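ENTRY TYPE: paired fold submission
RECORD: A
CONTENT: sequence, then structure tokens
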Amino acid sequence: MDTILDTINQLRTEGYVHDLKLAWNYLHQGIPELKILHDEFVIDKFYRFEGESDPDEEATVYAISSPKHGIKGILINSGGIYSDAIADEMLAALQMKKP
């Protein structure tokens, strides 16, 4: 997929309908706030986008599922996970794992 929007639209058709946000030691989907801890979700796939002329345009789109909570959602992180103040457990859970 060429753009972040194309990627999001494709993931929506695959059932990733929740917009997830990153907090210190959990993911959440807004109101009512559902806290998804680092051991309660799986990164099903991810897409990295790099700005051709500006490194600040870098972003990673994560397709995330949580069997415990029965949801699938999308987390967009611009600038990389290292730029956010998050707990070590969340950092490890969001690492790019090689198959």
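RECORD: B
CONTENT: sequence, then structure tokens
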Amino acid sequence: MTTRKQYSPKFKARVAVEAIRGEKTLSQLGSQFKVHPIQIAKWRKSALEQLPELFVDGRTRKGRNGEADRDALYEEIGRLKWNWTGSKKQSACSIEELRPLVERAHPEISMRRQCELLGVNRSGLYYEPVGESQENLLLMRLLDEQYTRTPFYGSRRMMEWLAAEGHEVNRKRFRG
């Protein structure tokens, strides 16, 4: 496998100037500089195309490119600012506080993009947390009261106590 030679811009310019002068043929220049004649022709063509740009007034050139660059920069600033405010909201708020910020019928920004900007999973918008059942709340209250009275009871003894109180539960249910 052969590797490509890389020539410096200074070398390319020197060869292109020689080709533009036309004192030698492309074959002669190729053997002199050890470069293929087709490559020299490409460099000469590129140099001739770019020469007019060298003599354009600097003020005019900056004015034309400056407006396009400025518009692109303002667009990028707006995008980054929107992303930054979204990430700021993400770090300071919980999912419950972020849910109202997502507009489901927004005309321009899809729900997916809004969730992405806010740092919220879309599934978090639809999830409604389920509270503890009344039975679990009763058992937790009873266990807390009994543990306060008798902190030396283990899980087996607590299970026996709950059974005596009329609550048949498995040890795994309250064992932590």
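NOTES ON RECORD B: The CA atoms of residues 27 and 37 lie 6 Å apart. The mean pLDDT is 83.
STATUS: closed
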